[in-house]
Amino acid sequence: MPIPFLIPLLLTAAGGITIGVLSRQPEINRLKEQVRVLQREIETLRKAMQEQQRQINELKIRYSTLKVWNFAERQRTRGMTRGSLILHYGLRDYIELAVAQYRGKVLEVDDLRFFNGFNVMVNDQALGEEEKSFVKEYITARHRYQIDNLIPMNGEDQDALAHMVEAA
Amino acid sequence: MYLLWFIPYLLKYILVAALVGGVVAVFFPPIGGGLFLLLLLGGVVAAWTDAKNKRRPHERQGEAEGFDQALRSVQHSFRQR
Predict the structure, then answer these.
(1) Which residues of A touch B65 (CB under 8 A)?
(2) Cα separation of A129 and A18, whole Å?
(3) Shortest CA distance to A83 belongs to which of A155, A135, A160?
(4) Quick one: A75 exposed, middle or buried, by C-beta within 10 A (0-12, 13-18, 19+)?
(5) Within 13 Å and on the Cβ side, how many CA atoms surround A22?
(6) Which among B58, B68, B70 has CB closest to A76?
(7) Residue of A92, A124, A99, A93 lying closest to A111 (CA atoms)
(8) Whether the Cβ atoms of residue A76 and residue B58 lie closer than 8 Å to each other
(9) Which residues contact A90 (CB under 8 A, 6 or more apart)?
(10) Measured between CA atoms, how close is B30 to chain A, in angstroms?
(11) Which of A23-32, A33-42, A43-52, A59-68 has the highest mean pLDDT?
């Protein structure tokens, strides 16, 4: 290929790469900031998760003490425990994905959709019902066994998560 | 407990499959029977899903409640930072 044809081609490619990098920069900065906040607030995060775990354990005790004839209340309590667990594991997935992105991993479409949806929710912004359902289904699909059997994360898992954020 | 809801739902789907299969069979006799069987098969699965969902309205309501409650608690922690 003659050189005069190559130069515009290379310039176009270089321009495309630059525009691509620049257009992703605000997103990268946002993620870096998010991970920095998580690192700063690791203790708050750990406390929030412990508080959640306490609530889940309370709900589990309540569920197991409710008699069979309190069917509706028993089912509702089981549902509440499941709901708390969904958020519990959602927080874990959210943190893992934030760290993965910070380390330069490109997320799959569903992972990214979950990450953005969950980010909106925890930051107290309104999220549509469809997106909220997607977020719940995403988490349930990933942690079905633990959620169905009402198993919260143990201390080791939480510590591992905290270390992962600290190391990022 | 599932059976209690499964049977009426299954009957509903059998009725729909029979109606659709019957109408199609009038115009295209060779397809009618096959279509009925296909719809029946799908109907069994759909009836089972419907019965499961019907059985747990309290659990689903509680799940939404528990999720929102836990979310508020996390939002509160995030707001305080």
Answers:
(1) 76, 79-80, 83
(2) 37
(3) A135
(4) buried
(5) 6
(6) B58
(7) A93
(8) yes
(9) A118, A135, A139
(10) 41
(11) A59-68
Cβ–Cβ gap B68/A83 under 8 Å: yes
Nearest-angstrom CA–CA distance, A114 and B19: 42
Q: How far apart are CA A29 and CA A168, in angstroms?
A: 15
Tell me, what's the ipTM?
0.74
The span from the CA of B49 to the CA of B55, in Å, is 10
The pair of structure tokens assigned to A43 is 């203790």
Cβ–Cβ gap B66/A88 under 8 Å: no
DSSP assignment, residue A124?
A: T
Q: Which DSSP letter does residue B14 get?
A: H
pLDDT digits (tens, 9 = 90+) for B28-58: 888 888 999 999 999 999 999 888 877 678 8
Residue bearing tokens 């305080």: B80
